[in-house]
Amino acid sequence: MIEQLSVALLGANGRMGAEAVKAIDAAADLTLVAALGRNDSLESLVSSGAQIVVDLTVPESTEANVRFAVEHGMHAVVGTTGWDAGRLARLEELLADRPGVGVLIAPNFALGSVLASAFAAKASKYFESVEIIELHHPDKVDAPSGTAVRTAQLISAERTAAGVPSSPDATTTELEGARGSDVEGVRVHSVRLSGLVAHQEVLLGGPGEQLTIRHDSFDRASFMPGVLLGIRNVAAHPGLTVGLDGYLDLGL
Amino acid sequence: MIEQLSVALLGANGRMGAEAVKAIDAAADLTLVAALGRNDSLESLVSSGAQIVVDLTVPESTEANVRFAVEHGMHAVVGTTGWDAGRLARLEELLADRPGVGVLIAPNFALGSVLASAFAAKASKYFESVEIIELHHPDKVDAPSGTAVRTAQLISAERTAAGVPSSPDATTTELEGARGSDVEGVRVHSVRLSGLVAHQEVLLGGPGEQLTIRHDSFDRASFMPGVLLGIRNVAAHPGLTVGLDGYLDLGL
Amino acid sequence: MIEQLSVALLGANGRMGAEAVKAIDAAADLTLVAALGRNDSLESLVSSGAQIVVDLTVPESTEANVRFAVEHGMHAVVGTTGWDAGRLARLEELLADRPGVGVLIAPNFALGSVLASAFAAKASKYFESVEIIELHHPDKVDAPSGTAVRTAQLISAERTAAGVPSSPDATTTELEGARGSDVEGVRVHSVRLSGLVAHQEVLLGGPGEQLTIRHDSFDRASFMPGVLLGIRNVAAHPGLTVGLDGYLDLGL
Amino acid sequence: MIEQLSVALLGANGRMGAEAVKAIDAAADLTLVAALGRNDSLESLVSSGAQIVVDLTVPESTEANVRFAVEHGMHAVVGTTGWDAGRLARLEELLADRPGVGVLIAPNFALGSVLASAFAAKASKYFESVEIIELHHPDKVDAPSGTAVRTAQLISAERTAAGVPSSPDATTTELEGARGSDVEGVRVHSVRLSGLVAHQEVLLGGPGEQLTIRHDSFDRASFMPGVLLGIRNVAAHPGLTVGLDGYLDLGL
């Protein structure tokens, strides 16, 4: 018999939550012991015997949810946004008194996306040029995407630390906007196209060669392997971890 | 024995000219009867017996070269830029008196590039969204590229004629330049990357599908099949033809 | 007020049929007057006043459905497979007596896919090399895909007619299968990858350049623009048309 | 003043050697103190004062060249093939007596290619499916490429160690070769296309997402940043290092 982890899910009626119910049910080593919606009381978590709480709720309630879990000795895996510096500091303080409890806060559960950003940043100091193209459905209201901005920041930090100069660019005549936006010295281009979901391509170029790292998200299902990886590993990572890459084996 | 066409080349010492010498020499059905540089007299064209003159010179001399050829009953294939409306009008007038003579003026001899633009324009009225990404080496001084601007104009004309609305775009928060430049309603993004030469991608999207038409120019050699196609077909196209697509069989 | 076309749908309970119900309902110029499932009688079509019948049923019933429509003076748009030469011949015979009635039989309603195949075939005679990569989800049981085989056949026919030699290939040492399958002289490679739906890339190469024509189908919704285009145009195309490209304006 | 490293080049008249002469000359921190061709004596290395010897010769002479360098206390950077297990063992024995001397033997100096293979291997255990497409010019005689075989082996080792099952594949009807070659359980597809140089794409897929890692080599110049990185770092890596990745900072 496979050893079981008992999991409680908060936000079970949202779109991500519904996917997570399916994914946990399909995992042979996980048992879903509670699935709570907006109006359900957290108290039922205690009687459920959950070892791990997954929070896929809303920014307004995520902090209280996680505090409740930690105070009751349960680990937490959190996909909800809204964790600013103040919230993170308060959480770390709380965890200091609970040395065995682990919390993972992951702004992005798509394994491929997390890997793509990490690889692009690491490679960027070996190439003269780097630019980012992100492509999304036309209903998206912000450009560039948050993921592209974060990827550009990681790249910029890596290149600055290694003393790599800016990507060369001889442009003297530019139609407004042609060369994209500038995020900490990295050009980011945002395509909006009917039919697409969420895609990102990092282009790295040097004399006679190009390295391209592309990630495509076709579907919300792409977040589930990351959620499961978080559930299975949170107990082994006591304290606070921000970002799924903290659980990935990326040493090369 | 293969029937031979006699070809004279003007601008034989330039980079394109040097490629053309090699390409004509390698073609079993073409004989290079004259290869003139900057200071050579056009008079030698007459004694060379050339049937077709290829002009790969500079804007300053191309008009005089082509007039000389036409006046002496030779067809002309022209890759030099600088043919504005006035020059074209004067040439058409001259050709009116020489009904058997053909002239091809081609701003772009890369077959693949000409095909890509034609296909993209034709397809564009069947899709909700269309955007262009062009990618070049970082020494390029203008953005977007001339080819991208022409492709966007062809697409815009085709969509307008068919009554297709603008590509949908819900962007309300944009970092300056993120959404690229706007060429007659078509978004064009310009990437500059070390290692690249000249590349263009047209992305067309509709519900649940995407069509991508991409052209890569790796090398000046890519212009030669178009030059040879021009040489072989110019005699069969009397009068003035602008654009290599006029010689391509694109009826689908 | 927009003039309305009255449409009846056969196979309304299938997956394609359900999408079609939504697409017709959403179209301002179309009225769905009947939506029949497996056990419903065709007789109700007559009283519904349908001008156009859309058949998205099964190979076993499609011929009888289309004959019924034609005999009652209704146009038909057919997405069901199973129309072999014998069935087509019988249908043409029937249509000969009904000169005003149009039937469209389309094995593929994805506009982008139909365009991609047509463009690839037309371009293929201008390039030395051509290969096809098709990529699908790992549950697909046949390799290569039917669309890839048809695309290869179109390319082969076009190149043969133009006298273009085979793509060059110096391979002397090959691990079994590395160079893909051979469909009428065109190499076809089949990738099966979790996360994908249905994708095809035609690569065309010549000296110093490459033309790539790629189509991605992410979702069944991609067939609906083609279905609507068929409905709107079938009355203007009396007689039998096989293939959606017969309705597309592809003259370049 | 920039501190200088004194470099001697063996194989200076070959194609790679000629590129290396240019690259070393252009590097402000490197001085080329000797450039030897086939018939030149190694003795001149001693008088040249070279600290580092770069070997870009042929399999027949590389072992003797490297031994000579090590015996004279010079570091060596080696791009020549032909280093089998026996040669490597003899070299390690020699180096054991020369603890301060470093030797780098790199079968592939293209930084981007080395990074791409390392990233693909590391990512492969997080995805259900992985396949490789390699694309080369049509004069290549072997399929798949050596780089693709090595990449597949790295991926296979990583997945096996992590207990990841084979990529799913429901194919029951296959036209011979359609699914590519099988290298230790990884499917590898080889495209040969006029216009191309050397390209490789690793496709990784899971539920609803895809990660693509692509490397393009357009030109021999792409090897030079790797050669320079080797020269600059060999003194800091005493003993034998096989593979440029041993010098790259890939810890993520």
Name some characteristics of this structure.
252 residues, six-stranded parallel sheet, 2 domains, alpha/beta, 7 helices, Dihydrodipicolinate Reductase, domain 2, 27% strand, 13 strands, Rossmann fold
Oligomerization status of the protein chains: homotetramer
Cα Rg of chain A? 20 Å
Overall pLDDT of chain A: 94
Content of β-strand of chain A: 25-35%
Q: How would you describe this structure to a colleague?
A:
Chains A, B, C, D: It is an enzyme of class 1 (oxidoreductase). Chains A, B, C, D: Residues 160-181 are annotated as: Disordered. Chains A, B, C, D: InterPro entries: DapB_C, DapB_N, DapB_N_CS, DHDPR_bac, NAD(P)-bd_dom_sf. 4 copies of one chain form a homotetramer. Helix content of chain A is 33%, strand content 27%. By secondary structure, the first copy, chain A, is an alpha/beta fold. Chain A has 2 domains: 5-105 and 221-247, Rossmann fold; 111-217, 2-Layer Sandwich (Dihydrodipicolinate Reductase, domain 2). Chain A has a 6-stranded parallel β-sheet with strand order 2-1-3-4-5-13, sandwiched between helices. Chain A is elongated, with a radius of gyration of 20 Å. The first copy, chain A, starts with a strand and ends in a 10-residue tail after the last strand. At the A-B interface, β6, β7, β8, β9 and β10 of A face β6, β7, β8, β9 and β10 of B.
